[in-house]
């Protein structure tokens, strides 16, 4: 139970008792619950979307859904995307990139990355039809789930890039290749249950993007950091609505 609570505390803004002392051990074990937290967060946002998509036009309804996805994580992953963009797109050597990523200030590359990712999410979600409602809800659930599964993929396939410690050392010590199999099985089962063949395409797209981004991170800084984990989550959240929008467009063209 402590591991689940630790995962909820780390990945969401869910208020937990202040006197709840979970500790590093529970946080490390909480890695196993990242997909579960993603599923729960996605379900909560999908419930909100179900309501707003019935009283608002597609664009503002999609905007509120994307904002809800951002709020549920407290902006944690978007901050990682911004820092990663500032560092990776600076054309600096490895050590300087890590210094830039550690700086809390956001440069033009961070702003551009955030605007591009949020705009793409908004346009893809807004393109989803409100009917049938379960299919649209399934896409939104898979957005949050795919993003949290991407965290496990990058954690287990890359070494920790920093030498000065940090919160991610807790995750680096607790990682296990079995977590990758668990995350993949969880995502595949949810994808098939929610969207059937579209869900399979979502899983394939998630693996492809997560793998390519992990390779990019390795080439740039030799591993992962907390910021690259956040970036992986934000980028992977794009896959389900893009796959669904592309699927719908292909059916319409046929």
Kindly list the characteristics that best describe this protein:
mainly alpha; single chain; 254 residues
Describe the structure.
- It is a single chain.
- It contains 13 helices and no strands.
- With 254 residues, the chain is mostly helical.
- It has one domain.
- Helix 2 crosses helix 9 and helix 5 packs across helix 12.
- The mean pLDDT is 91.
Q: What is the number of helices? A: 13
* Topology pattern, helix = H, strand = E: HHHHHHHHHHHHH
User: Structural class of the secondary structure composition?
Assistant: mainly alpha
Number of individual domains: 1
How confident overall, as mean pLDDT?
A: 91
Molecular shape: globular
Task: Write down the oligomeric state.
Answer: single chain
Sheet with most strands: none
End-to-end gap = 49 Å
Compile the SSE list and pairings.
Layout: H1 2-11, H2 23-29, H3 34-55, H4 58-72, H5 76-88, H6 94-102, H7 108-126, H8 133-157, H9 168-174, H10 177-195, H11 197-221, H12 226-236, H13 239-253
Helix pairs in contact: 1-2, 2-9, 3-4, 3-8, 4-7, 5-6, 5-7, 5-12, 8-10, 8-11, 8-12, 8-13, 10-11, 11-12, 11-13
What's the quick description here?
This protein has helices at 2-11, 23-29, 34-55, 58-72, 76-88, 94-102, 108-126, 133-157, 168-174, 177-195, 197-221, 226-236, 239-253. By secondary structure, the chain is mainly alpha-helical.
């Amino acid at each position: 139970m402590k591991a689940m609570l630790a995962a909820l505390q780390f990945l969401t803004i869910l208020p937990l008792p202040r006197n709840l002392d979970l500790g590093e051990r529970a946080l490390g074990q909480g890695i196993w619950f990242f997909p579960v937290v993603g599923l729960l967060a996605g379900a909560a946002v999908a419930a909100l979307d179900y309501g707003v998509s019935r009283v608002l036009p597609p664009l503002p309804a999609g905007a509120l859904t994307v904002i809800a996805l951002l709020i549920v994580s407290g902006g944690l992953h978007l901050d990682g995307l911004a820092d990663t963009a500032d560092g990776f797109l600076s054309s600096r050597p490895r050590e300087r990139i890590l210094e830039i990523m550690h700086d809390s200030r956001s440069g033009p590359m961070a702003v551009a990355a955030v605007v591009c990712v949020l705009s793409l999410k908004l346009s893809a979600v807004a393109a989803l039809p409100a009917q049938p409602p379960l299919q649209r809800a399934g896409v939104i659930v898979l957005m949050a789930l795919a993003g949290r599964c991407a965290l496990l993929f990058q954690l287990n396939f890359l070494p920790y890039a920093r030498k000065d410690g940090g919160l991610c050392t807790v995750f680096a010590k607790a990682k296990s290749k079995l977590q990758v199999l668990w995350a993949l099985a969880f995502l595949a089962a949810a994808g098939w249950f929610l969207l059937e063949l579209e869900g399979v395409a979502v899983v394939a797209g998630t693996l492809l993007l997560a793998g390519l981004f992990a390779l990019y991170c390795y080439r740039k800084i030799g591993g992962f950091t907390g910021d690259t984990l956040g970036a992986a989550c934000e980028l992977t959240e794009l896959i389900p609505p893009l796959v669904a929008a592309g699927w719908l467009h292909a059916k319409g063209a046929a």
